[in-house]
Amino acid sequence: MYSILKSELVDPEMMAGEEDAGRREALLENLASLFVLTHQTCSAEQLEVYDNILLNLIELVAAEARARLSAILAPLDKAPPSTIRRLAVDVIYVARPVLVQSPILDDIDLQYICQTHTDDHMLAISERVELSEAVSDTLVARGGNQVLQSLTRNTGATISDFGFRSLIESARGDESLQEAIAMRADFPGHLVAALAEIASEKVKVMVAGLGGLDEGTDPIDCAKVVVLSKMQQSASMAYYDFDSARDDVRRKLETDELTPEVMERFARDGQFAHVVYVHSHLAGISEYGAMTELTWAKPGLFIASARALGYPEATVVAVLNCGPWQTMLDDVVRAVAVVQFRRMPYRLAVSQFETQKGRFDD
């Protein structure tokens, strides 16, 4: 078969006439179908043969045929690299499938396309399952509003401190983008004041919650407030006996292993303070950090930690129904959080967990 591929039977120069257009498109689709069936076992040489032939053929077919090829090759984890890169810089309806899905495109490819192609190309890139800081920063620097909105709402995108600062600047007068920034689980605590400074009144209330502030408190002056002390002084936190819980957990640690299942039992029994200290131990974070994760306005911080630490879904569900979240979260928010937990890529969860670990202790 591979000798046939190399032969004059598929020599594009023999099919360059207009009367051969249909034959070229049929050949392209047949080769693509054959590749899908055999791609996992292709050697490097065979992959190169496919790449060379497809690369020549796509220059001789209409955009509709190229779009079909793009859709076929996009999901494959092994695909002709030069063909993928050629499709990625085509007109957007051809390029979109590979820009959104293809793992063949690396950060250098994606950054180049961001720097040289349209907002539509960048919008497609912003929808990828995972995005590195480098690519996200390039999208922030060059993308229009629709690109920024898509990137900010993509939980698989890793955004740098510089990226968040640039997003905040771009969000002046744009309440929708402000809200998207505020809702990110990895939004840096030290940028709360910067976001509050440019935020609408509606988003300022949200930002106040992110900073652990009481509604009505000036978030610009108080963004550094200590969340733990505020919560312990509040009526809702006064309900829980943290001192006794700390002692109980320490005694249990002397005789038993603390596991997510232990935390789940505490959560189902309504022992929120115990949940805080078990999570602190399992995550290797301070009691303050655990408290913050488990009382945050949105559960994204805890979801990333739970995914990174390998907590069972049953533990996550129990915690989402425990403590202040019993009243803070509604059923829709809990359901969305569980879906986020299921779908979050492990590497992304670990990255977010490491980034946020210790952040609230600064």
Give your account of this protein's structure.
About 7% of the residues have low confidence. The protein has three domains: 102 residues; 95 residues; 127 residues, no CATH class. Helix 7 packs parallel to helix 9 and helix 19 runs parallel beside helix 23. The longest helix has 18 residues. It is elongated and about 80 Å long. With 362 residues, it is an all-alpha fold. The N and C termini lie far apart (63 Å). It is built from 26 helices and no strands.
Summarize the topology.
Layout: H1 2-6, H2 21-38, H3 44-57, H4 63-73, H5 81-88, H6 92-101, H7 107-116, H8 119-126, H9 133-142, H10 145-152, H11 161-170, H12 175-182, H13 192-198, H14 201-210, H15 219-222, H16 227-233, H17 235-238, H18 242-255, H19 260-268, H20 272-283, H21 287-293, H22 300-309, H23 313-320, H24 325-328, H25 331-343, H26 346-356
Helix pairs in contact: 2-4, 3-5, 4-6, 6-8, 7-9, 8-10, 9-11, 10-12, 12-14, 13-14, 18-20, 19-20, 19-23, 20-21, 22-25, 22-26, 23-25
Average pLDDT confidence is 83
Low-confidence stretches: 211-215, 217-235
Q: What is the approximate shape?
A: elongated
Helix content: 55-70%
Kindly give the count of domains. Answer: 3
Compute the separation of the termini in Å. 63 Å
Number of strands: 0
Count of DSSP H/I helices: 26
**Could you state the order of secondary-structure elements as H and E?**
HHHHHHHHHHHHHHHHHHHHHHHHHH
Share of residues in strands: under 5%
Secondary structure class reads mainly alpha
